[in-house]
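Can't paste images in this forum, so I'm doing it all in text. The chain is below; anyone willing to post the predicted structure tokens underneath?
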Amino acid sequence: MLALLLSLTLSFNNIVGLDSVTYMSPDSVSQLSEKDLPVTIDNIFFIGNKVTKEDIMLREMNIAIGDVYNKKDLENILVLDKSKLINTRLFNSVEISILHLNETLVDIVVNVSERWYTFPVPIFDLVDRNFNDWWQNQDKDLSRTNLGIKLYRNNFRGRNESLRFLLQLGYTKQFGITYKIPYLDANKQHGITLNFDYAENKNIAVRTVNHKPVFFDSEETLRIRRNYSIGYSYRRSFYSFHNFNIEYNYNTINDTIVGLNPEYYEPTKITQRYFQLTYAFTYDRRDVASYPLKGHRLDVLVEKQGIGAYDDIDRAEINVSYSKFLDIGKGFFVANYLSGFSSLPSKQPYSNLGALGYRKDFIRGYELYLVESKNFILNRTTLKKRLISTVGNMRFMPIDQFKKIPLDIYFKVYFDSGYGENFENYELNTTLSDRYLFGTGAGIDFVTYYDSVIRLEYTINRENEAGFFLHFKKEF
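Text version of the structure:
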């Protein structure tokens, strides 16, 4: 783990240097040859932003009125600015052009197509970790679904603020509200997020046996979770994001769960109350965040559960991940993801165990398993070839934001590997722990608008288990 942190630190030191751009002061103009004659930005015009405020767009751009640049440098900077505007996820498309007023004076024109920002989304979600877990481990049980509605209001007030309401019934009854304000100050560096979530279940996993969760059903409510949180964000540069979060968690379980697993929380307890502090750092230089093909990203997460008056749990973890994306030419691309995780102490409540198998930290071919680990290392590598890249036009669609449908299709091959260190005396799950695991295969990715990704994959793992797997998110 220490070697991984040192490696990523060295990589990050190299990365940070890429933030600099070539800027020329007027005093240096006289020293240039005619070939390198700089241009001055006379004005910046925005077209198509019916909702988004101009200062929100300027926050993502490296240029300003009055700046003086070498012509070639200006073109390169605008390519990066286009990428940054796309990665706000406020726009379907962005085009930036240079209008030459004369040899030394230019205007910049930014033409955007805004997304649809209000989404009342019906909820029909599977409660399991992924589609494959539901299809095979849970025998396609339709009762393991959530029904309800999510109401998203993105780009609220035209300032990239977001408001989310959640009302959900079914397997998990849940209510939630989140309000995110990314910019509180004039310099647009400080933000705040407020969140409340309430959830209750009549069916939960009470333990893991042979790396598969064992669920228990009841007519009574088995677990209630309440989460209150406030987050502070700091973004000084274009690519670096700092997030600090403090949460209060108040969880309760039915006496029946204690009988089935006395260590679900602390031994024999039916309540779990604790404060949690989280610091997350992200350095993101990917070209398109929804499906990157070039660039890199570094994530560092440090979390402490149990501080102050409420400390029913005492747990700390660190997770460091780095992803790299390369365009190697002729429609071929390579992507690599490296992740390391470590937690303390070695004995933890069942409900708070970390594992290979959650979110994007899993080995392809092991989607059906949880490898609960106090420490793990993971590497995922993909080689892909773009087969199709096109944009369809649905002229009959009455809403402009949905008329154009981009579609990209990629064929890929991949190899994932990892190692998870087991918890002490965790004897129900030893088959996949403390051993090198790998999975390899081939698949097809479908990428379309509003960050939609469908992945069809055929994988074989170290246990010689093979099968088709379906995913609805990008790899990493």
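The radius of gyration is 25 Å. Helices lie at 2-16, 54-58, 71-86, 131-137, 255-260.
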